[in-house]
Design a protein that fits this description.
- This protein has about 120 residues and is mainly alpha-helical.
- The protein is built from 3 helices and no strands.
- Helices cover about 70% and strands about 0% of the residues.
- It has a domain of about 90 residues.
């Protein structure tokens, strides 16, 4: 079974206190070791928090700021390229419309009126 964080802290502190009282380490060495341990623990906590936040963001469907900024740049580039392409296309249309042949109207078929049958006399 894994130790709880509080139990781990107390165990570490007891170990350092025992080493200090036994004369195995000096107070400066213990202080440096505790400082290093606190720094490493802080880095571990930061990494865990970062992982959890990223997982939550992905689950919710959010996008990161740098990804959003990259998309904004890409959309601007696409708009710029499409506007320049449409300007080129318009100039080609103008040139081609001047030389395009005119359409000839086709003659419509005449339809013959429908003959009405002779009216029957009144009875």
């Amino acid at each position: 079974m894994a130790k709880t964080p509080v139990t781990e802290v107390f165990t570490t502190l007891k170990s350092y206190a025992r080493k200090l009282s036994d004369g195995e380490r000096t107070p400066a060495e213990i202080a440096a070791a505790l400082n290093d341990w606190a720094h490493e623990s802080g880095q571990t906590v930061k990494a865990k928090i970062s992982e959890e936040v990223e997982a939550a963001v992905l689950r919710m469907g959010f996008v990161k700021r740098d990804e959003f900024d990259a998309l904004v740049r890409e959309v601007k580039a696409l708009k710029k390229s499409s506007s320049s392409a449409s300007k080129v296309g318009r100039s080609k249309k103008v040139a081609s419309s001047k030389s395009a042949p005119k359409k000839v109207a086709t003659a419509k078929k005449r339809t013959q009126p429908v003959k009405q049958s002779a009216k029957k006399g009144k009875s």
